[in-house]
Structure formats: structure tokens, C-alpha cells
Amino acid sequence: MSNVTSEIKKAKSAALVLATLDTETKNKALKAMADALDDNRKKILEANAKDVSNAEQMAKKGDLSDSLVKRLKVNDEKITGMIDGIKDVIKLDDPVGETMSSVKLDDDLILYQIKCPIGMLGVIFESRPDVVPQILSLCLKSGNAVAFKGGSEAKHSNKVLFDVLTEAAAEAAVPKEAFVLMESREDISEILKMDGDIDLLIPRGSYEFVKYIQNNTKIPVLGHSAGICHIYVDDEADVDLALAVTLDSKIQYPAVCNAVETLLVNWDIAEEFLPRMVKLFIENGVEVRSDKRAKRLIPKDPKVIDATDEDWDAEYNDLIISIAIVEDIEEAIDFINKHGSHHTDAIITGNKEKQAEFVRSVDSADVFINASTRFADGFRYGKGAEVGISTNKIHSRGPVGMEGLMIYKYVLVGNGQVVKDYVGKNAKKYIHKKLDKEFSL
Amino acid sequence: MSNVTSEIKKAKSAALVLATLDTETKNKALKAMADALDDNRKKILEANAKDVSNAEQMAKKGDLSDSLVKRLKVNDEKITGMIDGIKDVIKLDDPVGETMSSVKLDDDLILYQIKCPIGMLGVIFESRPDVVPQILSLCLKSGNAVAFKGGSEAKHSNKVLFDVLTEAAAEAAVPKEAFVLMESREDISEILKMDGDIDLLIPRGSYEFVKYIQNNTKIPVLGHSAGICHIYVDDEADVDLALAVTLDSKIQYPAVCNAVETLLVNWDIAEEFLPRMVKLFIENGVEVRSDKRAKRLIPKDPKVIDATDEDWDAEYNDLIISIAIVEDIEEAIDFINKHGSHHTDAIITGNKEKQAEFVRSVDSADVFINASTRFADGFRYGKGAEVGISTNKIHSRGPVGMEGLMIYKYVLVGNGQVVKDYVGKNAKKYIHKKLDKEFSL
Questions:
Q1: Fold designation for B229-375
Q2: CA–CA dist B113, B115 (Å, integer)
Q3: ipTM of the predicted structure?
Q4: pTM for the complete prediction?
Q5: Which of A359, B299, B345, B355 gets the highest tally of CB atoms within 10 A of its CB?
Q6: Are B381 and B399 spatial neighbours (Cβ–Cβ below 8 Å)?
């Protein structure tokens, strides 16, 4: 058994202990973790400086992207952000043991459905070291064990953060073995094979990275690969509102998955809306890729080029937008369901029936009405802390908070009931009355 | 593109229509399906008679088990059962569009989480033809498209049931293409590869069968492989209660996954409990496989043999039970978490603290106190109809009803809000107030 395999098996056992910790113990440990970050600022910054200096050298040679180096950097403000993040998790309700439903099956025979941790999680992430405190605090509060594998470019930062945090937690009676930091590249292929031990994998990184994980493991993966988001501007849209929302959806942070990539415009509003929209795009440095019909309505400009078929399935993550004209809302919905990535799609219209149709028919995790696609985010949704965004269609969808780390167990409390009394002639009948009763013994 | 691949792609498109049907239309279609079964009893019985006669000939040659032939048989009473099952589904609340949560992010910016169908399901099942009306009615009510692949031994029965039901539904304005029946064996390997199109697979059949499906697809699988259930009889158990519950858990229907396979007995009650328990087992034809310590307390009998290491990880599905002595509840819990299949495990004790410890620490879908393991079942839980039992730890766990066919989407309703107003200096603050508001436009 490799080192990592045996550490993860130990963590899985420790997960059973973690699942039974009371809220007070967990919050004390979280407080200790926040304090430890504050006490170890210097150590963290020193370790991060090593990573950043190595990464900058690699970036100079072209082996690393500048944006990756940027994401890698930790400063005092970012450490304060990590501390605040942990404090937010302290404030979240403890989900473990929460009663989800209760049903009276018969006299003195009550069935409870109660929340419990999923168990053993694996988190594989690229350069951002702030994933460590974020996920570690969510896992601790939700009673899940977790194994981390970060990018090698962040290895010093991850190691010092992991050590500082888990040592602080251990002093507050949290089993240290529940948390594992993997450091070698080979460990990834190792953990992808551990479908008997790891209950859920959470990859955080680029499209290609997440896709690679999804394609190479039997473990359920919580995540999203592509983020091809649409805005449909209906003929009953408020034009100024449509301009502002579309511009924000594209330029507020174009590198991320919830930025809009394709704009669909109703034929009947295109003449009024499109020239103004494209002018705004050009002023803000956005390249426009237009279909033939839209092109007729757009002033000629070097920033406006013809769209090809590939553009309708492209995630630019950049200051580029594709534009197509559609006849009506039905064509827009079909287009989105066909070309989208079921992430976030918005309609701009004042017509409530069309809003409802869009909500019913668009098969995406986040369906927005008259608001920027950029709102699709755990922090903005009020989840306190985000595990990730999921385009899965089972378990969790959209921005995922701590609730995505929970499952339930059924607890049946009886006093000797046997099934044979409920079958055959003279069978006792089940009552099946929904109760509003918290689990208690 | 193969025939099945193109039919499933069509079904996936039809799923988007199915997702938008109103409750009245769906209930009308369900009523028509129930009536059609009643009107076509003769046709169904004739088709089934062909399958049964073929199967009986195969069973004579030893190519099919007798229990499979038994499960295959449909009679008038079973058709009535199918009709009643569909009527139960009519009574279930329509889950589509249900508001799960609502949060005020800011003035005129409300985030709703609403239930929606998962989309395209694949159901692969062995001989029981009653799976067709059961799953078809649940899928229709929950707005999911579904492709079926039944065992070849039931092909005539499945075909006539599928045709009668989907034709009736189509007359009630339900898109017929949403439902697919696959008939050739090669279709299975075809659909296992369709992870871009099928959102969830539900295999129903033997342990080996489910395991095979789980090991050969990237599609999420809702199901359970092994059912290794335990009962722990604590030293503070009521002995008569322990005897009755354990006997029921073993003999009431030993061939199924929720029958008990291993009995753990606290050392301090073993002398009083075990001789009586084993006597009952022997009287009821149960073979007992005992560990060394238990053996000393059990009267010698040809039905009592020594357990081997393999027995602690065995699912007998038969009149066989393994028995081990444990020192205390902690040893019992460790044993269950190590050897169990996280399906259903019970404790027999009057001590509430030990009950609570067992509930907290046993990592199983169903954790029972003083009741038979045989209660772990969708019908007994009051779910109306059962999709299956899941030992997965994401999405659905334990007996799964219609709720297991649902996911949610986030709907954000705004009036032109843009993210840039909520970042940087003078950023607007999110309100994040939980509302108790149904989704409305």
C-alpha cells in the first residue's frame, strides 16, 4: 500500500470520529485555526514568497501563465480574507444531525431522515492557496475528512497553511489524521483510483483540468467543466437595462465561468439595441463575433468579425463575445439548450409569461431574469463559503456551499416491530403520517 | 449513429418538453395508463405466458434460476397491483417547480431554488416486468425521460407493457419519444457509453449485475450492490424483543438485500440470549455460522458450523446467519463500519445513550433501533413508489422515491442589477435575508 493510500484509509476512519464531534468542539477548533493564521502571517508570507519567486522564473521562461502567478500570490490582505472566511464558517449552522423529515410509520415506530457528512472527500486544485483554509474549514464544520492535492507551484504555501491549520485544529481535539496533504504528482493518479475510499472528488481549476479528472475516475466528481453562458435580449426588453446587464456579464470579470459568451438578440429589437450594444463593447475592448443577420445592423469596425460555427460552442474566458439574431424566445431557448453548458443563462424581458417560459424550459443550473450572469456565485448567493460550482444534475447544482458536503441517513426508532406483522392476512396497516418532529430518543 | 443512440438523443430533447407539462396533463396521462392496463389484461397475460413458457424450458435445462422464473410471472392480481401503483403516483404531489428556498439578495433581487427533473434516465433491469409501469409512472410525474432495457427473458411482457402504457400517455398529450424501450443485448454497452446524454442510470437486479453496471460506465449510478446488514444485540437489550426482531430480519424474506446477515451479540447477554436465538434459528431452518466464543454457548447441532473469515463479509441472501460475540458497543460499531455494506444496521438496546451513539457512529443509509432490518423499503417508508435502494453517499441514500429523480435550478429575478455595483469602493451590500416565499414572477 502506498503512503498516500494508507493515509487516506486512516483519514477515512478518522472521518467517523469527525462525524460525531459536537458543534462547540468544531467551532473552538475553527477559532483556533483563525487565530493560528493570524499568529503565523510571517511564516505564511515567507513560504508564499518562495513559491512566487519560483513561479515568476517559470513565467519568464513561458512555462507558467502570468494569471497563474497572480492567483498564487498571498499578501496580508489575503490572509485577513482567509481568517474572515473561517469566521464566516463558525457562524454557519452546524448541519450534522439536522432532522430533514420525520414520518410516523406506526405507533412507536418513527422514521427520521437526518443529515450527516458524506465522509471522505478529495480536493484537487490548481495554484490558489486560499482553497486550503476555505475547504478545510467547511469540511471540519460539516464533519468530513479531506485529502488535498494542490499544484506543485504552490507547494510551500499549501504546506505551511495546511500545517498551521491542522495543528491548531488538533489542539482543539479534532483528529489530525482526518486531513491529508498530498505533495507529489503521482499522488493524483493514486487517489483517482480510490473509488472504494473517497466518496466525492472536488476539482478546482481550468476546464481542461476538471475534464481530465472527470474522465479518469469512477469517484463522483462535484464540479463544472465548461461555462458557456448566454443572454437572450427579448423584443420586450428595456434596452438600457439590457445594455447594462450584458456589459457587466461580459466585462466585469471575463476570465471566469459565469461571464457571458454568447448574446442572442430578438430580431424585432435588434435594430434599436445592437448598434448601441456593440458600440459599448468596442469602447470596452471587447471583440465582437457576429452572425450574418446581426452584421447588417452593426457599424463596421476592426473589432467586429464574422462568427464561425465553432463560436457558438466556445468558452472564451476573455474579452470576446459572439452575437446571433433569433426569431423568438423558442429559438433562443433551443439555442441555449443545444449550445450552452447548462451553467448560467439569462433573459432580458419585461414580459412575465416569457420570463416563466424561460425559467421552465432552459435546462441550466442558474436561470436569471434581468440580472447579470456574474451573480452566479456562492458568496453572492449568501452561502458564506463556496465549495465550487456544479453543472452536475445529481446531488448539487449551481454554486455549492456546505450543503453540498452533506448526505442523510434514515433512522428508524421502534420498540420491537417486525415486518411479518405488516404482511399477509390481518396485516397491520402503516400510518405514514408526516410529523414535524425533531429527531430525539 | 446507432438506432438506440439516436432514439435516446430524441428522448433527451423530449425531456425538455416533459419538464414543462402541468400537473393536470400528467395526471390525466397517468389515469389513461392505468385504464389501458385494465383494458389490456388479456394481451399482457398472453405476452407474459410466452416469456414464462420460454423461461421454464430454460430453467429445466438449468440455464435460468427458478426464482427468476417466479419473478417473471404476471397474473391478474399483479396487473391490479401495477394499476394501484400508478394510482398511487397520481396521488403524489407534483414535485416539479416546488420552491426549495428563497433568499433576498437585495431590493428587487430574489434568488429562488426550484425543483426540476434530472432529465434523461436509463433503467436497466432483470426479469420483473412490473418495473416498467412503476418507473414509467414515476418518470412521467417527475418530468423525466427514460430509456428501459429489460432482460431478454421478459421481452414480450416488457414490450406489451411499454407499448400499452406509452400509447395511452401519448393520447393524453405526453411526447411519446420521451420513452424508449431497448430490446437487444448490445444496446446495454451502447447506453453505458452515453455519459453525455444520460444523466442517471438505475440498475435493478442482482449484486453482480449492479456491480457490473457501476464498473462499466461514467454515468452516475443510483443503486446498491451488496446488502450486508447487521443486528447488534446489546447487554441492555430486552431479550424477547431481540429474539423476535432478529428472527424477522433473517427469515421474513431472506433473499433480499435488507435481510440480516451477521448477528453481533454483547458478551454480557450472550449466555441468556444466544441459546434461545439459535434454537429459534434451527427451528426455522436457518444455518448458523458461529465464531469461537459464541460456539461455547450454543448447543451442538448439525445446523451450527464454524464461521470462517469470509463469513464476516458475506451476503448470503439465504437462510444462513453468521454470529460473533463483541465486548461492547464500540466493538460492534467498528465491526459494522468495517464489514458492512453501509445499507441497513440495527441495534437492540433499551439504553438511550447507546442508541444515540449507534445512530451517530454507524455509517449506513438506514440505522435502526429496536426494529427489524426488513423495514428498509420505499413502500414501508411511505414513499408511495420506489425507484430503488441506494448505498451511494451523494444525491440519494436508502430507499429512494420520486425525490431521487429530482434536482433543482437556481432562478434569480432582478430588475437590471449588475455585479460591478457590488464590488470595490462604495460597493452595495448584499442583504442575504432568507424568505419564506414561493417562486412567482
A1: Aldehyde Dehydrogenase; Chain A, domain 2 (3.40.309)
A2: 7
A3: 0.92
A4: 0.92
A5: B345
A6: yes
